[in-house]
From TrEMBL:
InterPro entries: DUF1003. PANTHER family: INTEGRAL MEMBRANE PROTEIN-RELATED (PTHR41386), MEMBRANE PROTEIN (PTHR41386:SF1). Pfam families: DUF1003 (PF06210). The keyword Nucleotidyltransferase does not apply. It comes from Sphaerisporangium corydalis. This is DUF1003 domain-containing protein. Keywords: Membrane, Transmembrane, Transmembrane helix. The chain crosses the membrane at residues 41-58, 70-90.
């Protein structure tokens, strides 16, 4: 009897199940699902079925392999559909996972952008408050013009009183 030690890794078990890479299988299923959704696939299937039906309907009896109700053709199409549906669902699930990750990244980017906009808004408001306390060029120009007018008025008053 072997003792299970917790300080050592477990021995690898040999299994009968075949090993497969889920990511590679997912990529393959997406490629197949993408192909199943094309016009090329529809044309290929239409040509295949037409040739099948024509061959088994028109060819001499000893050369046909699937007579009129075309049971074998029905079996093939049923098998194709039974494999296509899960492959399409797997491809959709993988796309949903990618969309979920993209959505999360978009949400994080939006939050970051929102925080930056709020920061910049606060900075602009602070600058406006600071500028409100500073004298602007127009304000200084107006004050200087008023002082010049006052000096002219004062000088005119002095000049007028000194000449009398």
């Amino acid at each position: 009897m072997t003792v299970n030690r917790l300080d050592q890794p477990r021995e690898l078990r040999r299994t009968i199940r075949p090993h497969y890479d889920p990511e590679a299988f997912g990529r393959l299923s997406e490629r197949i699902a993408r192909f199943l959704g094309t016009a090329r696939f529809l044309v290929y299937m239409t040509v295949f079925i037409a040739v099948w039906v024509l061959w088994n309907a028109v060819a001499p009896r000893h050369l046909t392999f699937d007579p009129y109700p075309f049971i074998f053709l029905t079996l093939i199409l049923s098998l194709q559909a039974s494999y296509a549906a899960p492959l399409i669902l797997l491809a959709q699930n993988r796309q949903a996972d990618r969309d979920r990750v993209q959505s999360e990244q978009d949400r994080m980017t939006t939050e970051r952008n929102q925080a930056e906009v709020e920061y910049l808004t606060r900075e602009i408001a602070g600058l406006r408050i600071a500028l409100g306390e500073l004298a602007t060029r127009d304000y200084i120009r107006g004050e200087l013009e008023r002082l010049v007018e006052d000096l002219r008025d004062t000088g005119a008053d002095r000049g007028g009183t000194g000449s009398q």
